[in-house]
Amino acid sequence: MKHEASSPKVSPGSAASRVPCVPAALLAGCVVAWPAFAAETTRLEEVFVTATWLETPVEELPASVSVLGSETVRDAATHHLEELLPQVPSLSWAGASSRPRYFQLRGIGELEQYQGAPNPSVGFLVDEIDFSGIGMVATLFDVEQVEVLRGPQGTRYGANALAGLIKVKTREPRPERELEIEATGGEDGLVGAGLVAGGALGRSGDGSAWRVALERTASNGFRRNAFLERDDTNERDELTARLRIRLLPADGWTADLTLMHADLDNGYDAFAIDNSLVTQSDRPGRDAQRSTGASADLSWDVADGLVLRSITGWADSSIVASFDGDWGNDAFWDDAGPYDFFSLTERERSTLSQDLRVTGSAGDDWDWVAGAYLLRLEEDNAQRDEGRYLGDVFERALDSRYRATSVAGYGQVDRRIGRGTMLSAGLRLEQRDATYRDSDGFAFSPRDTMWGGQVSLTRELGESLHAWASLARGFKAGGFNIGVAIPEERLEFGPEYAWSAEAGIKGRWDGRGLAADVSVFFLRREDQQVATSFQADPQDPLTFVYYTDNAARGRAYGLEGSVDWQATDRWRLSGSLSLMDSEYLGYTLPDRVLDGREWAHAPAWKYSLSATWRHPRGWMARADLSGQDAFYFDASHDERAGAYSLLNLRAGYEAEAWSVHVWLRNAFGERYPLRGFYFGNEPPDFPPKVYVRLGDPRQAGVTARFRF
Asked: Peptide bond preceding 338: is omega within 30 degrees of 0, i.e. cis?
């Protein structure tokens, strides 16, 4: 594929945000027009949320949640969770890595991790294995559904879910024999292959089963390095292997066991001085993550509705992140050089979690849950920076060791009040003890005791409609900043708390093939943690540092909605829309005032629309249109990414034993930024300038599946 050096859409800080009236009108039109097709509709499959105490129908859950089912996973993406994120209201990600590691929900979430203390705001689980802050492993091969809970999850997940939770649920084992292979090819050197096999375990016939999934995909990464004359310096090479076993050893006993391995060995040559897809770096970087994880979900139905459940999760990850910091070479800089800068960080992270809970009932009107939670996190970092400019040589080495133990107790009570009304109240108390040491002599031992919870009310408005309201308090632990350039008063920062008031209506009309929901929220953040940056010496890139501080307060309110409509037996239409207004309250930096400004990576609107057509003879076609408003890149400057829209297309033939699909992603060839920085990086004067990492350009391909 040919890459031209064109600029992305970047709008100034004063640009006005406007709601996309055409997509909003189309989304509303889907709901208004449904009676015209009512006679031809088919039923929708019932959708359950599993990232809760018990599997719950999505329309009965008093929370803002999106569930992307197996059909959406299969038809709207080709390989990675990144391709599904436009479908989810109020969800963004910061492209500081080759694949999404850092997510933002309603504008809350980390943009990168340049310090040695992981402290995520958005929880991320794959089959009960905690990958919060390192979500790069989320490939989609053999995935059943993706669940996104928006808003503080203070009772259920505590400090790792201040903004919400993302859970990837893979397909469960079944006792029926299964064998499936998949092959993909496309532009940008894309090749991929996958295998799924499964069936009954042993000959007992009790329902025990196993399932294996294996996939590998590689591509060149949509960049051309003009200096090295290579097209693969930003390449992707991604392997996923998974084994799932379900055991039913005795009446009332269930054991779900998962073992997974993900090896994503990607290049990172993503930035260019002219903000194009043509790079000039002489030392391209690497963005690799090798993770091995396991989980054991054990359930025992004791008696009379009393259930004991134990969920154990373990993961070990090796992460390499490196980049060419000057994005050039000596010949490129010419008389301004020689100029060279390279950064390498090697991370070793392990997590071990244990959740033990008991659920039960007291009569017909009371349900309850009580439990204890333990999370042990260990991370070692080795950072090496080196560079030279004219006659000066820069070198820096930093080794750090971080350990954190979180212990929590929680409980929730649900009370039926009359007919069709449920009142729920939950509380969580959590303590986090951490230690940090590094080779620069910095040492911290923070301890935070935090609490959160929720009160919610759900009301049935007939058989098809539910109304709900909730008040929740979430929390996130404090931390510290490292580096000799960090002012002493900013070395440590405290915990953050968020209050969220939400209300909404969810409807499901099976006879008409329609499901829809709409909700409003008001969010108040206290001691808001804000990540920012500064460059102490404009002519020394090694003095560009990141730090986190407690802003005074933050406020946001908005609306989120979605609709899924099986209009006829051939047509399925769906859409989502989120509107949000956010602002810092009383936040002042030494050189600028951010009071009243929007948060970073918090677009004022986001939408998605999709239409799928399936013919009884096996032909299908799907179109996905999504877009979002402009957003600020960071709190340290006022540069913004421009609004954009993306169109993805898919068409093919599906037989009983095989299928073939052709697809086109980013059909408009839109140039859009995923991450932006503003600093001086061009000698000899090093003027401040915005540099962006672009999203993937247009790509076409074909995918074939065969079932035996």
From this structure: yes
